[in-house]
Amino acid sequence: MSETKFPRGLAERLRGILIDADYTVSGVRDRLGDAAARALAREELVPALRATGGEERLGLLLRLWWLRSPIPARAARSILPVDELAEAGLVTVEEGPGGPVVYSLVHLGPWELEDGRPGFVVSDPKVRPGSGGVPRPDHVVGTGGASSTLSQLIVDGPVDRALDVGTGCGVQALHLASRAREVVATDLNPRAVRLAGISLALSGVDGARLEQGSLYEPVGGERFDLIVSNPPFVITPDSSRYTYRESDLPGDTVCAELVRQAPAHLTEGGWCQILANWVHRDGDDWEDRVGGWVTGTGCSGWVVQRDVQDPAEYVELWLRDSCEHGTPEYTRRYDAWLDYFEREGIKGIGFGWISLRNDVAQDATVRVEELRHEIEQPVGPYLPDVVDGAMTALRLTDAALLSAHVALAPDVVEERTGRPGAPDPEKIVLRQRGGLRRVARVGTVEAALAGVCDGTMPVGPLLDVIAELIGEDPVAVRERAPEALRTLISEGFFRVAR
User: Fold this and answer.
1) Which one is the CATH code of 125-130+139-374: 1.10.3720.10, 1.10.1040.10, 3.40.50.150, 3.40.640.10?
2) How many C-beta atoms lie closer than 10 Å to residue 421's C-beta?
3) Can the peptide bond before residue 110 be classed as cis, meaning omega within 30 degrees of 0?
4) Residue 64: helix, strand or coil by DSSP?
5) Phi, psi (rounded to 5 degrees) for 248
6) Alpha carbon distance 463, 478 (integer Å)
7) Which of 253, 288, 382, 399 is most buried, most CB within 10 Å of its CB?
8) How is 205-247 classified by DSSP, letter by letter?
């Protein structure tokens, strides 16, 4: 592929052609239909090829850009500037059995920008199982589950300056473009910088700055209001195979370095949000390990573990990712990878996210937890409230808590379990119907407080009334209530009124 800048005029014309043919998220979904889309998710192309047959424009574009099937050059030239696209390195023209055909050299997929406008993401074609191929070392991966997870995590804007570290195909930079006045995207891989530039150009995003280099090196002493990263976090004994998933730093060090260096590049109050892997070792608590990356940065943090895999599961996942299952190298690589984990004492690998806010505070706090259940998406709109709750709970002394005005969060409901006719329930729980959908088992005092607190009265007098109603000593209730209430504030069941 040519390393020259993608011509702006060509980008504008190609964008117009794609939109005019309804090569959009909704247009592609409607054209393929549910059965073909489900087959593609199973890496089966035949139903999609059947659904896109003929010489109608959308079908031709789908076969060329999405399914990577050759289309007749005559038909391609009727809708596309083939020679210019070939010069730019996006397609190639070859002689086929029935005459000249056009092949795509990239995957060009429709995307929907945050404001609803059509966008496009350009990446290297996916290497499909059974094809006999493996990704090139500088392979640029397209959109997938991880990129979707990160996009759902990003806090709302607007912000002044945003940075995408390890931009890959540029999909996160597209998300940032609707939130930030200025977007900078970096990647160690020059091919990724090139393809990200095409993604941005085809999506009508002007002015984004693309830089080549590792981690924060390309942005020197610059600061940003928002930093995001889907880094090459795969933990492997061989760091030189694929730049999109592996760094030259050992173990989970690349994620640790992204976190530790973030404050130097954040404005006050700025956010850094990354996806990460981290190791689990015997005798090494993962919460302390990852929380330690954040401690001392002056940032408040929220670390969430969404999944844990044992070493065998992890190795199988990434060998499938590089289409090595069934190849002569599969067993050797599998065995060497397990040897590496054994030498390092790695018993499991966690996957999740880390969000930091540069509070520049001595009492900045880090909340570390595991959430395996389904939560409300996107997370970004309510993520600051999660960090605020943890910070508030940390800062309130018992006396301040009893003087605070507290209100039940609006999405919380109470559930009671007990035998019919029994005077008291066996169990009372508070449940969040939205957000993180947590469940907390509470006592009679906390349940009663949940029923009356609306932010208009301090906690202390409310507890006194509750103690009188249930026949307990108000002093004893005041002494034990703050600990439980602090946890409920930290977990978002209660909010301190401002």
Assistant:
1) 3.40.50.150
2) 5
3) no
4) helix
5) -90, 10
6) 7
7) 382
8) --S-EEEESSTTGGGTT--EEEEEE---B---S-TTS-TTTB-
pTM metric for this prediction: 0.94
| DSSP codes joined into one string, 244-273 | TTB-SS-TTHHHHHHHHHGGGGEEEEEEEE
**Position 225, amino acid:** D
What torsion, rounded to 10 degrees, do the Cα atoms 124, 129, 132, 137 define? 40
How far does CA 11 lie from the centroid of its chain?
28
Pairing label, strands 405-408, 412-417: unpaired
**166 close to 187: Cβ distance less than 8 angstroms:** yes
pLDDT tens string, the chain, 498 residues long: the values are 444 578 999 999 999 999 999 999 999 999 999 999 999 888 889 999 999 988 899 999 999 999 989 999 999 999 999 999 999 999 999 998 889 999 999 999 999 988 889 999 999 998 876 666 788 999 999 999 999 999 999 999 899 999 999 999 999 999 999 999 999 999 999 999 999 999 999 999 998 999 999 999 999 999 999 999 999 999 999 877 899 999 999 999 999 999 999 999 999 999 999 999 999 998 889 999 999 999 878 899 999 999 999 999 999 999 999 888 888 889 999 999 999 999 999 999 999 999 999 998 778 889 999 999 999 999 999 999 999 999 999 889 999 999 999 999 999 999 999 888 777 888 999 999 999 999 999 999 999 999 999 999 999 999 999 999 999 999 999 999 999 999 999 999 999 986
User: Domain boundaries in the chain?
Assistant: 8-105, 125-130+139-374, 396-496
| CA–CA separation, 54 and 62 (whole Å) | 11
List the CATH code of the domain at 396-496. 3.90.930
**Positive or negative, the Cα torsion across 277, 280, 286, 290?**
negative
Closest CA to 85 of 187, 17, 169: 17
Residue 464: helix, strand or coil by DSSP? helix
CA gyration radius, the chain: 27
Rounded Cα distance between 324 and 416, Å, is 52
Q: What is the DSSP string of 325-348?
A: TTSTTHHHHHHHHHHHHHHHTEEE
For residue 284, give the DSSP letter: B
What is the rounded CA–CA span in Å between residue 77 and residue 154? 41
Q: Which residue is associated with the tokens 């038909």?
A: 75
